[in-house]
Structure formats: C-alpha cells, structure tokens
Design goal:
With 119 residues, the protein is mainly α. The protein has two domains: 67 residues, 434 Repressor (Amino-terminal Domain) (Orthogonal Bundle), CATH 1.10.260; 35 residues. The radius of gyration is 25 Å and the shape is elongated. The model has no long low-confidence stretch (mean pLDDT 88).
Amino acid sequence: MEQIEIHSKDLRAAIRLCIETSGIAPKEIAFSLNMDSGHLSRMINSSDDPRHFPPERLGDLMNICGNEIPLRWLAQSRGYGLYRLKTELELENENLRKELAEKNREHEIIMKVFKELKA
C-alpha cells in the first residue's frame, strides 16, 4: 500500500478531504450516516462552529468514502505511519505458497538424485 502524506491542518480538514476525494456527494454521505446534510456541512466547513464530527462515526465515514484519510492524518499528526494488516486468508495463502515452493524444491532434488542414480 502506498504511503501518502496528508497535508491537512487539522482533523476537520482531513474529514473534508476524505469526503471531497470520495467523489460522493456530501448529501449522499450525510444520508448514509443518518445525518442532516446541513449539519454535516457545518461540521466539516465552519472553523468557528463548535460542532465536531463524532469520532465514533469516523469508521463509518471512511467506509462510505472508500478511503482512510482521517486515520492517516491522525497517525501522521502523532508521528506514525500506517500499513494494512494482512487478512487471515492472505496469511494462509502466503504460507501455502511457501509450502508449495518447498515441496517443489524437494521434488527437484529427488528428481535430480533419481536421474543421477539412473545414469
């Protein structure tokens, strides 16, 4: 996964960038979050409005928008980088590939010895 640095001044700006880059209309995002679109707009656009995006809804927002910009911003603002963890299926596939490669190496050695004994 490519590491992209997020240059937003604060979490509100990162949330706004998350929504803008999604290509989904803010009204649709608000509807998906069961929020009033005007309320969502004020939460992400007005720096003097005390309303903030509810932190417990950030996961829902990122799922709807299809990006992790707020999470990346938070990690970078704290001096951390992010990488996606492998799923159980990906880990199992990796292990099976290693086992198959080992079996192929063993097979090649056996075939080489067999050919040498035959000769």
